[in-house]
Amino acid sequence: MYELEAEALLARLRWPETIQCPCCGHDSGYTLNIRNVQRRRYKCKKCRRQFSVTKGTILEGVRAPLSCWVATVKWACAQGTTAQRPCDLCERVGVGPRAADNAITRLFYAQNRDPLRSLILANSPSKMCITKALTERLCLQGLNWEHVLTALLQTSPPNAPKP
Ligand SMILES: [Zn+2]
Predict the structure, then answer these.
(1) CA of 43 to the centre of ligand 1 (A)
(2) Virtual CA dihedral for 114, 62, 76, 89, nearest 10 degrees?
């Protein structure tokens, strides 16, 4: 998957109707046409700030290409994925060890918070068992990967100021 395709997918999941500004919440964002950028930029008509599709989300500031993130989430959601350590991710998705470690850390953080936590619990046959497992392993197997990506885009980064 090419980078712009992955970016477009995330934009569609984050803003199914109109592009909402992560800075002021206004829904009049538009796409900027800038050449030679790796990630598409957006601009708010109201506060005039520029932002990316990951701004204000758990994926903000990730170094790995967004296409790697899409692949990582697909991998973590795949049925029959048993081992879920950073080294498995390096092998399956082809990301470097630091990026893999970072991806796993962010997924762990997100799965202990809503809306991903609710999504996992709603799809789990045994809530007691899964609540304990959430802190120990990734619990994304069998989930719809588009739903998981959407949940990640609704999760704030760990050190974000409260809105
Ligand atoms: Zn704005």
Answers:
(1) 8
(2) -150
Mean pLDDT of the chain: 88
Separation of CA 140 and ligand 1 centre (Å): 33
Kind and range of the H or E run holding 43 = strand 42-44
Show the tokens assigned to 130.
Answer: 């899964």
Q: Most distant CA pair in the chain: distance in Å?
A: 51
- Mean of the pLDDT values across residues 131-145? 86
Do 7 and 39 form a contact (C-beta atoms < 8 A)?
A: yes
**Measured distance CA(63)–CA(147) in Å, rounded:** 22
Six token digits for residue 34: 């800038």
Q: Is the pTM of this model over 0.85?
A: yes
Other CB atoms within 10 A of residue 161 CB: 5
Nearest partner of 84 among 145, 144, 137, judged by Cα: 137
Say whether the peptide bond before residue 115 is cis (omega within 30 degrees of 0): yes
Q: Would you call 66 helix, strand, or coil by DSSP? A: helix
Cα(17) to ligand 1 centroid in Å equals 16
Distance 49 CA to ligand 1 centre (A): 6
